[in-house]
Write a structure and sequence with these properties.
six-stranded mixed beta sheet; 342 residues; alpha+beta; elongated
Length: 342
């Protein structure tokens, strides 16, 4: 179909090919008339009063798609499980999360679709948490009508899989190892573990084993092995991540794990963060002391990924450098600020 511009007086009996908005400042109102409405003589004055001296009506033309039809097709190209579409209006559709989880964005496919022109696909940052009901992306067809072959090109650009995926949070069994001779010998109160437990309480987690150890490597290794024997999904080691002579935790993590992803991450606070994986892909994290004092650190950026079962690579951590400086806002607005975004 093709659009034909026509003055409203001559459009009586014709099908509108676009919604006619009703604009009132500060209010969101339903359209005056929706796409497909057949214009009547009684509609002429309301159209003129709303500032529409002319409207677009449909004329059949092969190979063309209405904006709403094209938006629905693009939604099918971009979507995957655990998301649904809001109502399509004026060539735009929003993708809504059906579950709590981590949003994954296939950036190459997203960029390839946007490079086609006349199509706009925008989303939240990938590898960030979303909650059920969140808007995760918006798709917009720019013209009122678009060639079908443009949508075919978008489908080709997304070959290999959807543009957006959500990895749901699952119930996770956690092991916590609190290190430090001062806590182990009762000379100081454990202020670290309650902070970690509070963060874990935001998700469906269960601490199945908590061990307090001194700075003895053998004892630390044994504690983590006990956690693995209990089939934990994640081991969290608190404290002992600096370079002082008594901090042995990084070495203990290296012994127990099969692969160290990083020891040191370009994000502040949290630069001394450590991440490793066992041969069974169980993540082990070493938390620097800043996690105990700072509202949000690199741990808050990585934890959702680990709880959703998303593998974290060295590149993922290195990309945190741009935007990885916390501004220490009086009221933390993470994850809406730039901290950790890339």
């Amino acid at each position: 179909m093709l659009m034909k511009e026509m003055c409203v007086q001559d459009a009586v009996g014709q099908n509108l090919c676009h919604d006619v908005p009703r604009i009132v400042r500060g209010q969101k109102l339903d359209p005056l008339f929706r796409r497909g409405h057949v214009v009547t003589r009684e509609d002429v004055q309301p159209l003129l009063d709303s500032g529409n001296a002319n409207v677009f009506i449909w004329e059949p033309s092969p190979g063309m798609l209405h904006e709403n039809e094209a938006a629905a097709m693009l939604y099918g190209i971009c979507r995957s499980e655990y998301m649904h579409a809001a109502e399509i209006e004026e060539g735009m559709v929003q993708l809504i999360a059906d579950t709590d989880g981590v949003l994954l964005v296939e950036r190459d496919r997203l960029n390839a679709i946007n490079a086609l022109g006349e199509i706009v696909v925008a989303s939240r940052h990938g590898k960030t948490p979303v909650r059920k009901g969140d808007v995760i992306a918006g798709i917009r067809v720019v013209p009122l009508a678009i060639r079908k072959d443009k949508i075919d090109l978008a489908r080709g650009a997304a070959l290999g899989g959807p543009v957006f995926r959500i990895c749901p949070f699952r119930h996770r069994r956690i092991g916590i190892m609190t290190t430090g001779s001062e806590v182990f010998r009762g000379r100081a109160e454990d202020q670290f573990t309650p902070v970690v437990e509070k963060k874990l309480a935001e998700y469906d987690t269960e601490v199945v084993l908590h061990k307090v150890t001194d700075d003895n490597i053998s004892i630390q290794i044994h504690a983590m092995q006990q956690m693995l024997e209990k089939h934990v999904d994640l081991i969290i080691c608190t404290g002992g991540m600096s370079v002082s002579a008594d901090d042995r935790t990084p070495h203990s993590i290296r012994v127990v794990s099969d692969r160290v992803v990083a020891y040191g991450v370009p994000a502040i606070p949290g630069a001394m963060f450590m991440l490793a994986y066992t041969g069974e892909d169980i993540p082990i994290v070493g938390l620097p002391s800043c996690v105990m004092f700072s509202n949000r650190t690199v741990f808050d950026l990585v934890l959702p990924l680990l709880l959703a079962g998303v593998p974290v690579t060295e590149q993922d951590l290195m990309l945190m450098g741009e935007g990885g400086m916390c501004l220490n806002c009086k009221t933390c607005v993470f994850p809406n600020c730039g901290f950790g975004k890339h």
